[in-house]
Amino acid sequence: MVAKRYFFLVVLVLSLLALSACGSKETGGANGGLIDKVKSAGVINVGIEGAFPPFNYFDDNNQLAGFDVDITNAVAEKMGVKVNFIATPWDSIIAGLLSGKYEIILSSMGVTDERMQKVDFTEPYYHTGAQLFVPNDSDITDPTKIKGLKIGASIGSTFEEKAKELGVDLVTYKTDMLTFQDLANGRIKGVITDKAVGASIIKEKNYPFKTVGDPLYSETIAITVPKNEAGLKDAINKALDEIMKDGTYEKISNKWFGKDIR
Question: Domain 32-128+220-257 adopts which CATH fold?
Answer without folding.
Answer: D-Maltodextrin-Binding Protein; domain 2 (3.40.190)
